[in-house]
Design goal:
Elements lengths: L1 H14 L16 H13 L9 H5 L49 E5 L19 E5 H7 L12 E2 L5 E4 L12 E4 L5 H14 L4 H7 L20 H13 L4 H14 L4 H4 L2 H7 L6 H6 L3 E3 L8 E4 L6 E6 L4 E6 L7 E4 L5 E9 L2 E9 L1
Antiparallel strand pairs: 1-2, 3-4, 4-5, 6-7, 7-10, 8-9, 8-11, 11-12
Amino acid sequence: MKNFYAFALLLTVALGYGQIPTGYYNNATGTGYALKTQLKTIISNGHNPKSYDALWTLYQNTAYKDHYYENDNTLLDVYSEKPGGTDSYTFSVPSDQCGSYTGEGSCYNREHVIPKSYFASAAPMYSDAHHLFPTDGYVNNKRDNFPFGKVGTATWTSTNGSKLGPNLNSGYSAGFTGTVFEPIDEFKGDIARAYFYFATRYESNMPSLYTNAPSTTEVKAMFDGSSNKVFSSTFLNILLTWHQQDPVSPREIAINNAIYSHQGNRNPYIDHPEYVNTVWGNALFTPSFDALSIIAVYPNPSNNHRINIDSEVQLDEIQLVNINGQIMQEIKNPAAQSNTYTVENIPSGFYFLRLTSDSQSTTKKVIIN
């Protein structure tokens, strides 16, 4: 837990913390659901809802462009971006705006991360940019109104690995039995923090939304009808796990600042990731996460452009991420000798080392002199 908070704090200070208006969170002094209510007041005041069509203009903001992977200034779409390789297709803004689509790569549209059927397209939820992502129109349609979750055996997979299929009813996602949609690991935290924002900004609306929602099997699986906890126990654990696994990124910070300029309010869980656990508590992690939390990384700082990683669990992936959020090295299914993994040829600099095992992740700070 401390590793995540250190990562989030350092990243926020380095890349955008100063852009939070002075005193914006001064009244956020409570704990638990009292803090959530205080945050609701803060982010409701000053919220100047814009039209749904105004989102097309917002998506032209540089914050939505790819400055983190290929760095090609195309739209960064969470359903098509391949963080460790070349994208299958790219979208230019605004020329590739949907329109109609015939398959992946046809055009981009506006994805309601919280399905609009849940709130019957009511304002201001309908055009609230904090939970509206520009995404591939075809993949958006595939996601439909299905809840997010952990897919067991995929029935459909996008070109970047986002999946649709039956929920894996075990581990941190135990409790769902229907079809779910699972984005790639790189953007799971982004989606979780959008849900935490929605539950906070529309806290007082949540009971009536649950009662009046037309969907009783898909969308409602994510919620419990309350104004405090808001989420079903299974879905809350999924969100908390994704928030923990995928810390706040420079991209999220930039978009949060752009949306603040657009509609006058912020996502507090991007500015202060620690608020998530202060409000809802901690996720119920699997044993592999507990083992990840005590991994040793040495030497650190390193003077020989290499680091060693001692891990009691088998690692599925090692990512070395620079301060700008770019993945400098990505090692899938790395080999270990006597439970020690080695990452070599690291240029001098400040990095974050993301280690993944059995869909659980932890992040370590690394300095190469």
